[in-house]
Structure formats: C-alpha cells, structure tokens
What does this fold into?
Amino acid sequence: MRITLRALTDEDIEAHNAGEDEHTVRWLNGAPGTAETTAAHFDSLADNARAERGKRGFGVCLDDHLAGYVDCDPDVTDGLEPGDVNISYAVHPWARGHGVAGEAVRLILEYMRENRIGTRAVVRVDPDNVASVCVAEKSGFIYVHDFTSGTDRHPDGTRQPVSGLGRPPGITGAEYSAARQARPGRTSVRTGRAGLSGCAVGRDALE
It folds into this structure.
C-alpha cells in the first residue's frame, strides 16, 4: 500500500466530487462540490502553488487512485496564533480504515517543513468530529484550547464550538507528545458523547 500526495487537475474533478459523502460535507465543505466549484478550487490551489502563498492543497492517492484531500492554509486566523497554519483532511469512503488520513497528515507536515510554512500546524475540529480528533492525536497533535469560531457556523446559524490541536511540523509526533507530557495540564481533547468540547490541536516550531 502506497500513499502519496499530488497536485489536483481537472481530470480529478469527477473522482474528487464522487468521494464526498455526508461526512465530508458536514465536517469540511459545508456543501457538496459541483464541477464548476471544484474546478475553481483546483485553479486557486494551482495559482497559490505557483505564487508560493496561501492555501496549498493536494490529492491524497492510495496506490495511485485518488483517495482524499489534504491542505495547509496559513491565511486562516480564526482561533489561531501568529505562525499557526491550519490543516484540513478528508478521505473518500472506500479508502477509510487504511491509515490514509494519518499518512496524509504526515506528508503535509513534511511539505510544510520543507517549504518553511508556519511554525505550528493546527487542526481546528468540530466538537462532534471524533474521527478527525483521533487522526490528529494519533499524528502527535496535542490539545491547545477550546473556542467559539468567529467564522464557522452550524446550519441553523449559531456559532460553532471548535477544538484546536497542534504540533510542530519539524519534529515527530512521539517527540512532541513526550515534550508535552512533561508539562502539567490538559493534553487531549475531551470528547462529548465521551464529552468532546470545541478545541484546537497543534504541533509547534519548524526545525
């Protein structure tokens, strides 16, 4: 099994949109993609890659088949600190359960380190998105804080509670976890049905 990242092109539009299910729409997009909106998104990513600025996004491939999406976005500021870079990820239903999300996170962190993007990667996660929290924590991200989003809202218009988890792109998850465990205080997200409340999780400085 080989998991890689690559730039997205118009040839990927159909497969990308077909990989969106209700979970992807709820946790990532907010609305299903169309051929037009997805093409515009891919064009924007290509422009940003050429200019070396803004959101950089990639297709996640499992054995050369498009299996998901991952991006890093230094322009997101909601709930974040200077130097933080938001990362997002989604895996197509057929590819879930094979470690694709975790490897995609590792690869986007490697990309951030090599391109000197930010000083800490952060995952902003909805309180009920337990699967995404598990991916982040298994990738070495540690609870940072809870906050109410100023930009993300529920379908009824109410502001969304968010959890943040972070870690530095330049060290391993085990190294970061060991360093954080040496500090007092909360280090993981409290899950709600197990009690999850909104928070941010992250990884710190580039090395």
Summary: The two ends are 29 Å apart (CA to CA).
